[in-house]
Amino acid sequence: MSVVDTIRDHVRDHKRGMFVDLVFAIAWVTAVSVIFDLLSAPQWAYYLTLAGGVVAYYGFFWSLELALQQQ
Q1: Is the dihedral of CA 16, 17, 18, 20 positive or negative?
Q2: Cβ distance 36 to 50 under 8 Å?
Q3: Positive or negative, the Cα torsion across 37, 42, 45, 51?
């Protein structure tokens, strides 16, 4: 199996999840960029907030999973 076939199989198996990840990442970076364009904050705070997107991602989907389990 070639590398291309492996990638194709992976994308086929995880298509929806990869799309949701991409949408979350785009939304997070857009929101942080807009907020920091309006504020005059230091560059390190901008990068720290972007990195906080990792925590926000896992926190959001973990709480969403818990909410769906409680229904």
Answers
A1: positive
A2: no
A3: positive
3-state class of 5 per DSSP? helix
Q: Over the stretch 18-64, which tens digit does the pLDDT of each residue have?
A: 888 999 999 999 999 999 999 988 999 999 999 999 999 999 989 98
Tokens of 14: 């995880």
What is the spatial distance between Cα 40 and Cα 55, in angstroms, rounded to a whole number? 24
Which element (helix H / strand E) includes 8?
A: helix 3-13
User: SS3 for 9-68, per residue?
Assistant: HHHHHCHHHHHHHHHHHHHHHHHHHHHHHHCCCCHHHHHHHHHHHHHHHHHHHHHHHHHH
pTM for this predicted structure: 0.76
